[in-house]
């Protein structure tokens, strides 16, 4: 599955990368990402996830062919 990260998550991961693990939902994906870089755990807990340009929640069943976009929280200024 392809992963795209933005903003502060680029401090922990490459902007685009692939995950070979089989994950069924966003909670499982977060757990896999924490094994890649445990320093990202706090930020991942507050991120939003999207597939096909639409936000998803943990109920969404991920597919190995999905492209997942992970967007950290942002603050305006």
Could you characterize what this model shows?
The protein has one domain (2-71): Ubiquitin-like (UB roll) (Roll). Helix content is 19%, strand content 25%. The N and C termini lie far apart (34 Å). The chain is an alpha+beta fold and 77 residues long. The longest helix has 11 residues, at 26-36. The chain has a five-stranded mixed sheet with strand order 2-1-5-3-4, with no helix packed on it. Strand 3 and strand 4 form a beta hairpin.
How is the topology of this model organized?
Elements: E1 2-5, E2 16-18, H1 26-36, H2 41-44, E3 48-51, E4 54-56, E5 67-71
Parallel strand pairs: 1-5
Antiparallel strand pairs: 1-2, 3-4, 3-5
Helix content: 10-25%
Radius of gyration: 12 Å
Give average pLDDT, whole number. 93
CATH architectural grouping: Roll
Q: Treating each run of at least 4 consecutive H or I residues as one helix, how many helices?
A: 2
Biggest sheet overview: 5 strands, mixed
Q: Which CATH class?
A: Alpha Beta
Task: Please mark out the parts with pLDDT under 50 across 5 or more consecutive residues, or reply none.
Answer: none
How many domains would you count in the coordinates? 1
Question: Which fold name is given in CATH as the topology?
Answer: Ubiquitin-like (UB roll)
């Amino acid at each position: 599955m392809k992963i795209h990260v933005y903003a502060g998550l680029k401090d922990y991961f490459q902007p685009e990368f692939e995950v070979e693990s089989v994950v069924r939902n966003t909670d499982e994906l977060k757990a896999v990402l924490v094994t890649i870089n445990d320093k990202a755990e706090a930020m991942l807990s507050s991120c939003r996830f999207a597939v096909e340009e639409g936000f998803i929640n943990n109920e969404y069943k991920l597919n190995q062919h999905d492209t997942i976009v992970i967007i950290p929280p942002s603050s305006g200024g």
